[in-house]
Amino acid sequence: MRNAILFATALAALSLATVPAASAQVPYTEGTVERVVHLHINAGHGPAFYADFKANAIPLFEAEKSAGLIVSYRTFLNVTSSSTEDWDFGYAIVYQNMGALDGLGDKIYPLRMKHFGDPTAEQKVLDKRSENIHLVSSFLIRDITLR
User: Fold this and answer.
1) In this predicted structure, what is the pLDDT of residue 7?
2) From CA 89, how far away is CA 70, in angstroms rounded?
3) How far is CA 26 from CA 15, 21, 98, 99, 135, in A?
4) Could you read off the pLDDT of 3-44 as tens digits, one per residue?
5) Is residue 60 classed exposed, middle or buried when 0-12, 13-18 and 19+ CB atoms within 10 A define those classes?
6) Vertex 67, ends 61 and 70: CA angle to 5°?
7) How far apart are CA 50 and CA 7, in angstroms?
8) β-strand 133-146 against 89-95: which pairing, if any?
């Protein structure tokens, strides 16, 4: 009788232990992580912004990709603007996973200095860029595959 009670108790404990494990499993597989940025181009500043982005942002993205720091990047336009202050231009930088963001600033710094030469030259470009655009939003998203 005692063995039967011990067996029933062990079976109940085992069945209760498997319930949380089964319900804790997420219904998807995690994929890459993207930084998505939406920018508003100030009126009359489109040509200057596009020239700057092509001359400065794209080469840095390419260098980051060659160095294995990013998987890819893409650019896009908002074709359904809902107001004059809505975003016009966007870009996304794709990272392998969340861990790729750890220490990213230190890893990218040498690439930035190779492109700009020194922090003062970089700051001049950034100051000029702020005359052309303003940030509407910037966020991280994670790609998933449903199981």
Assistant:
1) 52
2) 20
3) 20, 10, 17, 20, 34
4) 555 555 555 555 555 555 555 688 999 999 999 999 999 999
5) middle
6) 50
7) 73
8) unpaired
